[in-house]
Design a protein that fits this description.
24% strand; alpha+beta; globular; Nucleotidyltransferase, domain 5; 393 residues
Length: 393
């Protein structure tokens, strides 16, 4: 799978199911072997979830996981704010050579699109204006932009990745016409690239949106591999819920659940519905002494209805049939989501540890013994590190 990062640079990301140049099933031959993934600005009061992954002969090892102190300033919201550049140093356990940053930004986007939409070929669409502009970094809003050069056969389906101040990547997926587009503003990318101390470990090698990092987090999951990379996944974040469908490692569907928020709202529903405080919400969602399902149903039922639509689409359009659904990113309450899913969909939710499939550390290393539910807050950080490790030039 190829990702075009700039007009002149395209990288090739080798998925576990892709063949190597020599025809072997092991496509990965070289690249980054020691990467720390950090999830930034997700609003967790404990700090930034961070995971360090190291590739060795027997697999990918997790050598550190925990929360690191957040940067002292917020993500900039304009070019002027981006001039204020802090220096953010990670603790020694996380000072890998490279860092992959999974970023939550109010300005980020990730969406399905098509080549026609990207090129502005659809008449009457807002994208039609894009074709009239040169796709490049917007340095001066008053600068006159010449017409874009025609897209040749060799360029398709890749397009330049910076337009109107936004840095984004486009990637063709497992179906004709399906391109996934993700990005954040250019000034935020530049600010993030300079966030870590110059000349010291780690160096920022990748900036990803959190949803994009989540999509990569399933590739080292044993359940995913056992089913030959065919799966339907529900990703739950603090503020959003996403559906993804894979077939043999190729992404066929990605969509955000409409009109439904993430697990922060779920916790508020439990607090108000059961009249409890913040200190025991997660305990209630993790034990069986109190049944929180009446409080959860207003959130979970619409999610299951939208999930059924996604399952029907994948079955009818792509002949993808699954007997279970992966539920990832939810830090508490997965057992109750599973019960509601079995009642509504007739199939279970499976919620493995975010670290399952990685080589677990020996005693005395910087990785606490997280429960599967506790590990979910590190899912985006692990996915970002894994994606950076799988890139090949």
């Amino acid at each position: 799978m190829k990702l075009q990062l700039t007009k002149d640079k395209t990288i090739n990301v080798k998925l576990p199911w892709e063949k190597g140049d020599d025809g072997s099933s092991s496509a990965r031959k070289s690249g980054l072997s020691d990467v720390v993934g950090v999830s930034l600005f997700d609003g967790d009061a404990r700090g930034c979830p961070a995971v360090r992954l190291v590739r060795k002969k027997d697999g990918i090892h997790i050598t550190a996981a925990g929360f690191v102190a957040s940067p002292a300033v917020s993500l900039p919201s304009s070019w002027d704010e981006s001039k204020i550049q802090p220096s953010w140093e990670l603790p020694s356990a996380y000072q890998a050579p490279q860092a992959a940053l999974a970023v939550t930004s109010p300005d980020m986007f990730i969406r399905q699109t098509t080549l026609d939409a990207l090129l502005g070929a659809s008449k009457g669409s807002a994208a039609a204006d894009v074709k009239k502009k040169k796709l490049g970094v917007k340095r001066n809003i008053e600068e006159k932009k010449p017409e874009a050069k025609p897209v040749t056969e060799e360029m398709q389906p890749f397009v330049p990745v910076s337009r109107d101040g936004s840095r984004f990547v486009t990637a063709p997926m497992g179906d004709e016409g399906f391109i996934l587009q993700a990005g954040i503003p250019e000034y935020q990318v530049l600010w993030l690239s300079r966030l870590l101390p110059e000349g010291r470990r780690p160096t920022a090698c990748s900036v990803q949106t959190v949803p994009a990092a989540l999509l990569n987090s399933v590739y080292f999951q044993p359940t995913f591999k056992a089913d030959d990379g065919t799966a339907v996944v529900v990703f739950v974040t603090r503020s959003s819920i996403y559906f993804a469908g894979y077939r043999k490692g190729d992404l066929l569907l990605f969509r955000e659940c409409p009109d439904v928020a993430g697990y922060d709202v779920m916790r508020e529903l439990v607090k108000s519905g059961l009249g409890v405080g913040d200190d025991i919400v997660d305990s209630i969602l993790e034990d069986t002494l109190i049944d929180p399902r009446p409080a959860l149903e207003p959130l979970v039922r619409p999610v299951l209805q939208q999930l059924q639509l996604s399952l029907d689409y994948l079955a009818q359009r792509h002949d993808v049939h699954v007997d279970k659904v992966l539920l990832m990113g939810l830090p508490s309450g997965a057992m109750y989501w599973n019960q509601l899913a079995q009642e509504t969909l007739g199939r279970p939710f499976v919620s493995p540890s975010a670290f399952e499939g990685l080589v677990t550390p020996v005693k005395g290393t910087a990785v606490p013994a997280f429960k599967p539910s506790e590990s979910q807050v590190f899912l985006a950080a692990a996915g970002a590190a894994f994606a950076a490790m799988e890139e090949t030039a």
